Queue: 4 jobs
Job 1
Amino acid sequence: MAQPRCVPYDVRVNATIHAEAVREARSRVVVFPELSLTGYELEASMVDPETSALEPLVRACGETGSIALAGAPVAGLRDQAFIAMLVVSPTGVRVLYRKQWLGEEECVRFCPGDEPTVLEVDGWRMGVGICKDTGVREHVERMAELEIHAYCAGLVHLPEEVDEQEERAVSIARRCRAFVAFASFAGPTGGGYTRTAGSSAIWSCTGDALARTGTVAGELSRATLHSR
């Protein structure tokens, strides 16, 4: 779980920062926070998955054999816009998931997105979500039905919401009987977030914390997961 320093609106610089985190992580899967490539700037321009600005991140994944899950606003049909999770691999970038459950301010610009999504990596079924999704019972129940091995989400929370962040993770782990990994922004990230919670972490299937960062931007939380 990575909680990188963020430069608001600057996808190219943020992709380079993401690439550095991927190299440092030395992990098969590296997860980043919600809207990590733009900052939580709800007016940021849409990110084209094929933009050259993401090439540093693609190269880093190629060098390390990693898959990165990064947050970005993306365009849809008929002028629609979505808060998305991109999957970045050595072969390129594609939209993996579009946030289904939106906050009140997000609804002004963005549309609700996909049904629950599963990413398969090396035989692991990984459910994914974005911030508010993690607190919606319907979303969690659908994830449980999909028999996932792990659940990964990118978040933006205030420092005073860190207890809620923890409670959601433990609840998902126990309901889905799956590992849970939350990448939560640290430091300022736009959209009125002058402070964010950080505390990115990985939990066991029983809700025990296996690894956790602090609240400083640039920290990583890392764990090796073993199949049940």
Job 2
Amino acid sequence: MKKIDWYIIKKFLGTFFFTLALIIVIVIIFDISEKLDDFIKHKAPFYEIVVHYYLTFIPFFVNLFSPLFTFIAVVYFTSRMAYNTEIIAILSGGISFRRFMRPYLISAIVIGSLSFYLSNFLIPITNKVKLDFETHYLRSQYYHTKYNIHVQDKKGEILYVESFNNYDKVGYNFTLEKIDNQGLTFKLKADKFQYDTTNGHWLISNYVIRHIHPDGDTFEKGKLMDTTFNVKPADFSTSLQPIDVMNFIELRKFIKEEKEKGTEKVKFYEVDKHKRIAFPFATIILTFIGVSLSSRKLRGGIGLQLAFGIVISFTFIIVMQISTVFATFGTLTPWVAVWLPNFLFSILAVYLIYKAPK
């Protein structure tokens, strides 16, 4: 590490954290103006507003904006260096362009590592605190009813509920079917299907069981049955599972369980899992693109280079959104969809580095 390395690292990280802090302050001010009436209406304590809401608010936005502001920070201070002919002096002093990029790589790895830690370990913790605060002070009790739900309990066992109320955790017109290689072997129909929160069991009311055999069927009736299933009330919700409060290890375990149940939401969870890894790498790729774009002194000044930088960064975000939509609602594999923008922009980074002034 030489003085020039420390100079670039300080410029890089200093510009990045300054611009990020500035945008977070602006976002918080707008959020306060929007939610102030709710804070007053629900008598939220000042300490909880600051500590349990806005301090937990910051890691999420740091991670959300880190690739974008990494790119903008690189373009801004590198173009200033180029405008002041500092880069010409560095390259004329015998330092190769590859060697010149080393402090940028170190800084990008620092920011990427921070992003990985935030998204996979810290943010799930802060989201729990923030969610509790929002539940108490910002929104009313959750209530929703969903209709015609099919859920796989485990392989060969399909649950069907005509309607399910998430508030009371009760479903109506419940059916359980067991299927093997020979076809349907068991069918249970019941009027009511309710979750007992005290012991985690399901209570089935007014049921009829049909056992299907090659030599004939047998029937069994009853008023109440206490049983267990792998599914939980959240599996019957229209919203996604609370993956925002799961760390990377918990998320992987959760996805494995959901695949065994055959839930239709698995693609959403896998996209989120791959995003948590792909975003830190995007920071490094966008850094290389930013250096290559802004290391040349242009007649139009740094404004033109900043404009190019903003266009490329928003193009990256658009490509990411389009590819994830194809993954969640189309046939594209989740890991391909999430990593595709990184792959495409890696090619662009290699081309720009090759064309950059040496």
Job 3
Amino acid sequence: MILYPNAKINIGLNVESRRSDGYHNISSVFYPINQCFDILEIVESENFRFTSSGINVPDCINICEKAYKLMKIKYQIPSVHIHLHKQIPIGSGLGGGSSDGACTIKGLNTLFNLNIHTELLEELALKLGADCPFFIQNKPKYVSGIGDVMKNISIELSNYNIKLINSNIHISTIDAYSNIKPKDESLSLIKLIKQPINLWKDSIKNDFESSIFNIHPVLKEAKEKLYSQGAIYSSMTGTGSVIYGIFNKE
């Protein structure tokens, strides 16, 4: 079985409050994109094996193995060989690791005919990370809480081109949050996103840009470059470091 875990971009990312458990409440719109993807192969094997190629996957963040072990304990599935060809940059804000984990769960569900319903797949994915449940349905979502509360949202960008600039900078999520100051937003993102896209530039923000651009000015330059090239809207995705621009197709 071969799967293609895709990336996502954040359209807006507001950090609203710090929780008692140490996490932060956020609001954002997650939008799946196919311009950047990994390749995941899962086959039955006598013993469990994980191999990878492409971008190096450190053992400490091997989410595919974590996903397999989770499913093994709960459903007693046979051993598999998982091979991941990693293409989505790590620490880029594109959600590649979360997508790999979710796709592993979905792939094992299909391979072994477990017939797990969508809601339970999302619950399993949440055990791997806050962003993982999004990739189960892989549809545009308004997310809140720690990223685990999802609501369908009607947004369609297929009539636009989305360009990504990767500056090959790895930004730790923990470091990104350590420099952020939560604040309540006067207008909810779910209302702002319904505006015409040409109004997003002045109203929809990523709260991490201010602190991260100060540390990595090359990212600010990338955003300015996209606007100079005619982008309708440009932003850093997630906690960085990829910058994307949305362009009219013509």
Job 4
Amino acid sequence: MRIRKWIGITGAAVLAVSIVGCNLNKPGATGASTKANDNKNSNSASSSSTSTTSSSNTPAPDIAGKYNVIGSNPDGGPYKGTLEVIAHGDVYQFRWNAGTQYDGVAVQNGNMVAVAYANGPDGKGCGVINYDIQSDGTLTGKWGYWGVNQAGSETANRTAGSDLVGEYEATGKNPDGKQYKATLKVEPAGNLHRFVWSNNTDGIGIKRGNNVAVGIGGSRCGFVTYEVKSDGMLDGIWGGSGTDKTGTEKATKQ
């Protein structure tokens, strides 16, 4: 596969973009797109939320390489294809071919990988945050944007609420080293969570154990959370805005 040039995005910062997730279905095995419906998906984010442990003290495994993928759309329809994971400094580029091409940016935090992606040959404008949830409720994470090789960081201290839902005071650092502050509100959204920052920035997150992956970057961007298994397989849950239904994906290295 010929790799598309990784094009930088100037001025990208987590607190400078208005962001929501999107609802992107992957094509089925026949190559025809499936459409999400209103039926509950048994493979929802909540079904895996108790099986994943914190990634804060887990050495980060090497995820770069080529994979075969099988998965299910939120409506239960199956799909299969290939995935290439390419290292770019602090982040990864994810390139799928599952009947349709998808491209995204990923941030790894121990054995957890968070991805934001879009249809087409690039994921320009998509971003992602990968948080660990600490025992006191503090969120500590890394974030990145498609096309930017450096990752940012953010710590959000909870000031109200319980579990993940609540209000936070966030401080962070942009890839250029500049620091920022903001307030953050996390709201339940069915099986998912909505993240709203004080500058009209928002995203959709999937919680798995003590980790939460938040997709950002506009209505064209979907999001995935992967757990890296001991054999290197990526065990994923993915979704978008407008519904709390999720799809699943397993990626096995070639």
